[in-house]
User: Fold Acyl--CoA ligase from Bradyrhizobium australiense.
Amino acid sequence: MTQPTASPTLDTLFKRNLARQPDALALVDPPNKQRITGQPPKRLTFAQADRMISSLAAHFIESGLPSNSVIAVQLPNTIEFALTVLAAFRAGLVVAVLPLLWRQSELTMALNRAAARAIVTSGKVDGVIYSDLAMNAAAEAFSIRHVCGFGGDLPEGMASLDNAIFRESPTTRAVIQDGRKAALISFDVTSDGFRPVPRAHLGLIAGGLAISLESDVPQGATILSAFSPMSFAGLASSLAIWLLSGGTLVLHHPFDDEVLEQQVNEQACDTLIAPAQLALRLDELDFAARMPSLRNVIGLWRTPEQVGSSACWTAQQATLTDVYLFGEAGLFGARRIAEDGSPALIKPGPHGAPRDLPGSSIAGEILLTPRGTLGLRGPMVPVAAYAPPPPPSDSLIASPPRDYVDTDYAARLDRVTGAVNITAPPSGVMAVGGYRFLAQDLQEWARRLGQGALLTALPDRLSGHRLAGRALDNARARDALTELGLNPLMVEAFRDRSNAA
Assistant:
């Protein structure tokens, strides 16, 4: 009896690239990494990255993490993130990604919900001490057994991965490389509350293929990723696309426009992955003259309801692909091919990658639900994670399972063109700084700020919304937000806004 051929994992894709071109440049750090994390920037070939991945995987195995256990990762967009994720996969672990702007209460909730056995973080990111945040959250999470970090001045009890990454070890573990195995847990906020969303390697690869095929990323591309990797879309648009193309991944910690321009020109990047609002702003500033090597721009929309009313793309040297993101449920892309640079029309039904090529592979399906909302189905969409609770019924016959995810985005069909118009985001959920929060949480924060205080979410071109506030006593307001477990970065943002007001 023959064994069925196993589908690939992200580590399988990495090893294929390693075998083809071990000395080719694989990963490049941001040049301002010293300011961001206090560590010097690195440049790694596939062979160098492979040795570091094996060393980290050996460290995880020797630490006693069993196969298929969950390791939480909260890191900036630097080489350490890519190495840690691939090392976890090589050790047979499942990665849970934790956004940088999360509060300690959300970190603790995520660690408990995912039953994480370990957490990996950085000592400092942009001056904020993330090692203390991770240690405090780990102390409240019963399942955590190991806390690891990159960088100096780590607190007592946190293992240094800077030492482990350069220590060669023969320790390995037999891991079945099967794309159907669990790979990622990301976290979504819906009107029903906090929701962990698991995915297999195949789901991650399907997301990367949908974007890369639609945008026509060439083999051997030099890709600059300026999108936070701490989500399904972040991993699919950076790690997965890089491994599928077999080129070089240049990392940019969002956001410094001078550094981004420097990276694109020094590395001769041909592909840019960034928030869509940032890509359109670069177009307004005539990036074609300043960054002549760019040929593909992939713009990710955390607010897909704004795509239809966005500005036209004017650059002639590079194409723009709009990628619609629906939280952690899924995504789809559409390259702008109209002469005036307007967004492509999105029709309901199955869509290929690329969508304008007849007979192309089906990347997913778009549909309108009976509620007048947009639904998604396809290989990257984790239907089970979003399955609604079964309705109470006395019938002995179970209702048929739903085979799609309702994104809760209001949508309608245009009577003239037949295209889908996304009209509004999910009710009760607010995107702030690129992350989702329940509207009732914002109301609770405002209540704790004291009488006469104001806290609201204002539209922002780059991140959807930003918190803005005013308080009679700014010190009291910051203390109240800190008591609620608000991330220090968000507290500082409130202080700046309130003083300006």
